[in-house]
Structures are given as structure tokens and as C-alpha cells.
Write a structure and sequence with these properties.
Blueprint lengths: L3 E7 L5 H12 L4 E7 L7 H9 L12 H4 L6 E4 L16 E4 L12 H26 L6
Helix pairs in contact: 1-4, 2-4
Length: about 140
């Protein structure tokens, strides 16, 4: 079976989409190729790295990127990490399935370190659960 190419899209590609990419790589490896990108990428937030590494992820190959970095790949599914991103998604010149999830970005707010870490932990739990459901739903559907 051919793997489906999935891209997670967020504003800065420093938190939500990186977390989703990490979990899809872990939970959906036999069925999916996972990627992420943003319209204003920056470095992956240090607390996101810290939390994901504490959960056993090797983040050596995770970095924030523009769509242009991965635009030569064709995606079967693009997941917007928040509904507010609908109008910000770059023009993509081929058919794909678009999913819209609703996760807030805790790194976009001014929070103290401990509060931020707790919110990132909670976000990881929520994204992991959503990715598990995604894998269960989409792993059996053929690539068109």
C-alpha cells in the first residue's frame, strides 16, 4: 500500500504543526509520510522541543519551514491546525483533501514558563488523541 502524504499547516510552524507531525510520524509511519509548514516559520519553540523530547521523540530532523521548502511534494491531505488559517493557506495547484482542526497555539501568548509548559503538555495530549483518530480513520482509505 502506498503511503499518503500529509502536511500540517500553522502560522509559524513552531508548536502545533510540529507536534502533529511528530505524532503522525510515530503513530502512522506504515501509512503516512508526515510534514509540516507555516507561512511565517520560526525556530521550533524550546519548550515544545523539551516536552516532545521528554516523550521520547528525537527532534534532530524537525525544523520549522516555509511551504516553498516542501512545495515540490504532492500532499494527499493538508491539515490546518486552526480555522483562522483558512485564508492564509498558500495556493496549492492540485487537488487534495483539506481538514481543519482547532488547536490554539500556547506559544503565541505571554505565559510564564511553567504555565506554558503545562499548556504544551496538554496540547500534546490533545494532538496525540486527534492523530490517533486520524490514523484509525485514514489508514484504510486508498490513495487516489
Amino acid at each position: 500500500m502506498e503511503r499518503k502524504n500529509v502536511a500540517f499547516f500553522s502560522e509559524r510552524n513552531v508548536c502545533r504543526s510540529i507536534i502533529a507531525e511528530a505524532y503522525l510520524r510515530r503513530l502512522g509511519r506504515p501509512y503516512f509520510n508526515a510534514h509540516s509548514f507555516g507561512i511565517r516559520p520560526d525556530r521550533v519553540h524550546y519548550l515544545v522541543r523539551e516536552v516532545l523530547e521528554s516523550r521520547g521523540f528525537n527532534l534532530n530532523y524537525f525544523f520549522s519551514k516555509y511551504y516553498e521548502v516542501i512545495e515540490n511534494q504532492k500532499f494527499d491531505i493538508i491539515v490546518l491546525m486552526h480555522p483562522s488559517l483558512e485564508e492564509k493557506l498558500p495556493e496549492i495547484p492540485y487537488p487534495y483533501e483539506k481538514l481543519v482542526w482547532e488547536f490554539e497555539d500556547p506559544t503565541a501568548r505571554q505565559l510564564d514558563r511553567e504555565t506554558m509548559r503545562r499548556e504544551i503538555e496538554a496540547l500534546c495530549d490533545a494532538v496525540e488523541s486527534r492523530v490517533k483518530a486520524f490514523v484509525d480513520q485514514y489508514r484504510t482509505q486508498p490513495v487516489e
